[in-house]
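ok, trying the design again with the full structure, not the truncated one.
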C-alpha cells in the first residue's frame, strides 16, 4: 500500500454471470481494490448495507430485483458512486440508469481495461484534494463546501451524487467560462468517449436540485449549440 493511502477502496460488484464475476474481480483486485460480489438484486442490497462500498458496479439485468430498482433504492439513501453495466445499444437502460442517479455506464460487451479505467476515474473524482481550491464557493444563496462536499441552497442542504457535484464545481469554479459537452466529459468522466447526452441528463438532474426554477436557471445556463456556463 502506498504511503498516505490508509483505506483500501471497496467495490461491490453486482452481476449474475460467474465468468464475468471472476474476470472483473481479478482485474479490480489487481488494481488494489477490495471486491465483494453479489449475484442478484436482493443480495446486492444486503451486501451494500454490510460491506459499505466506496463504489458499486451494477448490472441492469439481474434476478429477483433488476439493476434499475437496486440503483433507485440505494440512491434514495446514499450518493455512493454507481457504475452501471448495460446491454449494447440499449439506450433506454442507459438513460433510465442516469435518471435514477447512476454516475456512469459501460455497455456490454466491453474490454476489462475500459471498465477498470472508468472505475479508477470515478474513484479519483470521489474526493477533492485539500489545499488546491478555496474551501467554499458562494453564489447568491448557493453554497458549495469543497472539503465536506456539501451543497446548500438557501438554508437547506442539497444531496448530490459524486458526478453531479463534480459537474457543479467544474462550472462554478469557472464562472463565465463556456464548457462544451465534450470538455465536461473529459473533465468529469475522463478521456474515454461517451454519448454527449450523458452530460445533458446530469445537468438536468443538477438543475432540478439547485435551481429555484429549473426551466429558467439562475446558475447553470445553456450556451446554445455549445454546452453550459455558470453565471
Amino acid at each position: 500500500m502506498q504511503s498516505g493511502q490508509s483505506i483500501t477502496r471497496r467495490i461491490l460488484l453486482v452481476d449474475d454471470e460467474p465468468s464475468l464475476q471472476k474476470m472483473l474481480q481479478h482485474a479490480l483486485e489487481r488494481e488494489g481494490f477490495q471486491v465483494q460480489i453479489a449475484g442478484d438484486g436482493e443480495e446486492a442490497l444486503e451486501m451494500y448495507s454490510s460491506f459499505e462500498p466506496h463504489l458499486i458496479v451494477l448490472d441492469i439485468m439481474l434476478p429477483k430485483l433488476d439493476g434499475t430498482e437496486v440503483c433507485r433504492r440505494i440512491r434514495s439513501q446514499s450518493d455512493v458512486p454507481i457504475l452501471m453495466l448495460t446491454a449494447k445499444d440499449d439506450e433506454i437502460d442507459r438513460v433510465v440508469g442516469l435518471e435514477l442517479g447512476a454516475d456512469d455506464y459501460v455497455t456490454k460487451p466491453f474490454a476489462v481495461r475500459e471498465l477498470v479505467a472508468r472505475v479508477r476515474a470515478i474513484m479519483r473524482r470521489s474526493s477533492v484534494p485539500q489545499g488546491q481550491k478555496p474551501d467554499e464557493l458562494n453564489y447568491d444563496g448557493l453554497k458549495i463546501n469543497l472539503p465536506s462536499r456539501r451543497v446548500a441552497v438557501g438554508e437547506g442542504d442539497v444531496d448530490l451524487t459524486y458526478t453531479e457535484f463534480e459537474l457543479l464545481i467544474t462550472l462554478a469554479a469557472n464562472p463565465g467560462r463556456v464548457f462544451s459537452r465534450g470538455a465536461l466529459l473529459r473533465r468529469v468522466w475522463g478521456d474515454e468517449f461517451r454519448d454527449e447526452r450523458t452530460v445533458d441528463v446530469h445537468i438536468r438532474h443538477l438543475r432540478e436540485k439547485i435551481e429555484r426554477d429549473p426551466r429558467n436557471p439562475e446558475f447553470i445556463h445553456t450556451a446554445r449549440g455549445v454546452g453550459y456556463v455558470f453565471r
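Keeping the full-length input from now on. The chain has eight helices and twelve strands.
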